[in-house]
Each structure stands twice: as structure tokens, then as C-alpha cells.
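Cont'd.
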Amino acid sequence: MAFFEVLAGSVNTFIAALGETVKLAIVSLIIATVLGIIFGLFTVSKVKILEWISAIYIGIIRGTPLLVQTFIIYYGLAQVLRPLGFQWKLIGGPFTAGAVALSLNAGAYMAEIIRGGIESVDRGQMEAARSLGLSYGKAMQKIVLPQAFFTMLPAIINQFIITLKDTSLISIIGIRELTQNGKILAANSSTKVMIIWVIVALYYLVVCTILSKIAKVVERKVSHGK
Amino acid sequence: MENKNIAERPVKISVKGLRKCFGELEVLKSMDVEVHEGEVVCLIGPSGSGKSTFLRCLNKLEEANGGEIIVDGQKITDKKININKVRENIGMVFQHFNLFSNLNIIDNITLAPVELKIMSKEDARKRAMELLKRVGLEDKADAYPSQLSGGQKQRCAIARSLAMSPDIMLFDEPTSALDPEMVGEVLDVMKGLAKDGMTMVIVTHEMGFAREVADRIIFMDGGYIVEEGTPDEIFNHAKEERTISFLNKVL
Ligand SMILES: Nc1ncnc2c1ncn2[C@@H]1O[C@H](COP(=O)(O)OP(=O)(O)OP(=O)(O)O)[C@@H](O)[C@H]1O
Ligand SMILES: [Mg+2]
């Protein structure tokens, strides 16, 4: 059958491409989580300037498409910073640019998730911790964030899956991840276009399904620990 | 006679002209209160009269808009004060317990002394077990707050405050979220504290308790202290019309 022939024939390039997709997703998600915690804490900080910074950041990201954000970072920054001798080539090329775009994008959504999680924790928990003499930071770290984490977990995992699929858009700046690999293969064999894109979809499906399954297990584990 | 004795002791809390607003709403208009070492003061008054707000100003959970609060010689209304340090010495017990739900009972109690490097982990655990024994919960050390009854939670919350060895304890309606049959066990713990000479400020609707334990009753309404005095003076010989009508309603 043609499908299995193509599947077997393309497995090498797809495994390499899958590696790029996963690498891009993991790097971006780690940075996004850090950004999310920082800007999530800014949002609940009651310090006006920090609240503004985070509101502007989140507003811009949520109000513009990821593709446009990617172009601004990859093409726009390259143009503006060229006089300073900057080229994306020097720091890892499109992969780095893609990771930056994806991190900033997912970071804003993570910040919203983390803000929601923190706000879901009863105010009395923070007050009790402060009344004992703990600093705001310590109370956050020891009491509020651990409790928020349980509530946030499903949303965080959902964001992981979204970001994994969003790597597809980053193909546009020339990273040979799953989607870009599909494009290249499809361009070279116009009779098997459908088969190739179904295969691409299957790769995403498998990874996302595995991620969901892991997530379910983790979720169950933590909620038991609670 | 006993009261004379109290008045001669050092002042632990001194509040002068305290004002507190929430936006347009002026909740505390001008409060003047002095609490002496070992004194038990009960705050009573109608709902919304600002009792909780006043109590929360004493450890700066609410920031005063005017006036001066001195706790243990530290002017906490001062901007530069290290409030965390002052709070180590002021325990607070909340209406809804506010036990840390991500920690078990023993960790609830040891968290602050260990994190604030007041005790080693082992010493803190030993002290926590003593405190749990004192409040009758030594068999609950490894339980989580969700596994405790309301009365047990509140006794644990008191133990958590005591773990910091505070000089002053603030209570905001510690029994009003409890089923009636659990009120007694919490009040008993508080009576024990009072007997041991703890300085206490208690917002309460438990008039029987106030009458029995308080050295002084403060009746507040509309952001002011309307009347204060010994339990006998307030409960049996109130002078102000508002005090009398409030007491008629609750007694
Ligand atoms: N954080 C807040 N923001 C706005 N208004 C508040 C806030 N906290 C309290 N208030 C208002 O201040 C007033 C006094 O509240 P407070 O909780 O001090 O009263 P209380 O005497 O403790 O009443 P209760 O017996 O019902 O507990 C109320 O009108 C209340 O609505
Ligand atoms: Mg109140």
C-alpha cells in the first residue's frame, strides 16, 4: 500500500523533524514557564508599575497572531539590529528566533494561567502566613504557589499541548520541523500530497496523545498527594 | 484590685487616633486604645462596626490611614518598620482558621519557626508536639487540615501561632465559624492562655466568655469606641444608650 511505503520511506526525515519539533517545544515551554511565573507574579503584585508591564506584555501577545510575532522577531529584529552587527545566524538561526517567539507567546498565556491559579487560593492563606512573620515572597513560595499549582495543572498541560502544535507555525521561517518536512516532501511528490499530510498529522497526534496521557497520570499522582 | 495591677504593667499595644478608610468608606474614625501586658481585652459591637478592621490594623494586615500604633515599643505605623519582625511577636487567629491546606498539621506549626530560622527543624517539631498536646491534638500531627473538625482546626491554628512564642495574640471571632458543640473546646484553650498571662485582644460574640475571661470590654460602633470598662461595668451597668441596646439584642 502506498501509505505504508511513504511512511517507511519518510521515516528518517520525519524522525529528525520530530526531534526539532520536540526540541523547539521543550525549550520554549521551559522559558515560557519562567516568563509565566514572573509576569503572573507581576500581575498579582499590587505594584502598579509591574502590573502595567505585565498587562502590556500580555495584551500585545494576546492581541496579535503568533505568525506576526514570529515575523517581527525574525525579520523585524534582524533588520533593526543589523547596524549593530546582529544576525540570527550568529545565535542559532531561525531555531533561536522561533524559540524566542514561541516562548514569548506561550509565556503570556502561562502568566494568565498562573495569575488565575494564585487568585484561586483563598486570601486567608497569604494573610495567615504573613501574620506569622513570613515575607511576601516566602509566603508565596511555601503556601500560595504550591496550592495554586494543583488548580493550574490542567491548564498548564493544555498550554503545553497548544505550544507543541504552535511549533507548526514556526516552520514558516525555515526550521525543518514536522510541518516544514511535510512541505518539502509534498513539494517533491505531487501525487502523494494527501498521504504525506496525513502522516504529518499522525506524528502530531501521537506526540500530543502521549503528552495528554502523561499529563493524566501526573495529574492523578499530584491530586492524590494532596 | 486586679485592674489596678494591670494598669501598672507595661503597655504592649498603644493606639492613638487610628483612622482607616476603604475608599470612600471611613471604617475607623478615631480609635484610642491601650493594652497592658497580660491583659485580655474583648472587642464587641455590631456587624460592620470595624472590629476586624481594627484588629487587622494591629499587625498591619490593614494599613492605617492616620494615627499611630505602637506594638511592643515598635511604631508599626512607621513606613520604615520591618513589619515581618514585629509580626513574629503577634499571633493571629482567624475566624476561618486559615490552616495551610498544602501542609499537614505538624508542618503547619513548624513552618514559620523553621523558615524564619528561629528553631532547628528538630526543636521545632519537639515544640510543635508539646503545643499539640497542650491543645489536645497530639494524635493529629500527621493529618491534613481537611481531615480535622472545625474545633480541631482552630485549636491547631492557635498552636501554630503559639509556635512563634508571641507576646500578644489577636483573635478575630475564633469560634463563630464553629458548630456549637465545638465552641467550648476552643474557648477552653483561650482561657488557658489568658490564665498563663498572654496579652490578648479578642473580637467575639461570645458574651459569656467575654464576661468570664476579659479584663476589659470595649464596645465599638460606627468607627468609634462607644464605651469601655470591666465586664461588670459593661454588662451590668452600661451607661451609653447604644451599648445597652446592643447588649439587649445579643444577650
Ligand atoms: N477590604 C475591604 N474593602 C472594602 N471594605 C471593607 C473591607 N474590609 C472591611 N470593609 C468594610 O468595612 C466595614 C467594617 O468591616 P469589619 O469587617 O471591620 O466589621 P466587623 O465589625 O468585623 O463586622 P463583623 O462582626 O460582621 O465581622 C464594613 O462595612 C465592611 O464592609
Ligand atoms: Mg469581623
